[in-house]
Amino acid sequence: MGTPSAEITTLLKAWSDGDKAALNRLAEQVYPELRQMARRYMRNERQSNTLQSTALVHEVYLRLIDVTRIEWRERAQFFAMAAQMMRRILVDAARARGARKRGAQIPKVNLDESAIMSCVRNRSILALDDALTAFSHIAPRQAQVVELRYFGGLTEEEIAAALGTSARTVRRDWDFSRAWLLRELRRQA
Hints:
67% of the residues lie in helices and 0% in strands.
């Protein structure tokens, strides 16, 4: 079938066309990557958090199988959707726990494991979500780049494919976004 990425794309298209067996094969293919994404997020959660990475993946999976009105085109699109769902689940869980935006029990959030910004480390997922939501009103594409890179773990090339832009534009958007979010999170401190 080709590369794992091409195989995932093929399975996504087959699933979109109603092939139920393709969903099972797809789940086997994407599960390890979804677990890796979830572990990345869960590192940023406080130790007392009851939501585990496996539960996060399972919740995303349950939500994804309910998605019926989407035409899957590529692997990056799928992982972008999964990233958005993980973000929503974590934010909802943080709000449900009564997490506050400021205080001593704030879970850690690293903006990017390859470009860790130390002053963001002790911000809550809620503060990051609020800042990212505000940023999306000002710069929607750049906010998508942050979501896909941080929450989705996608590469610059995958983000470029998902957004229909160049990797160079994604790199510029990422640099701009980090600066803007860093300023906002410092302001909230």
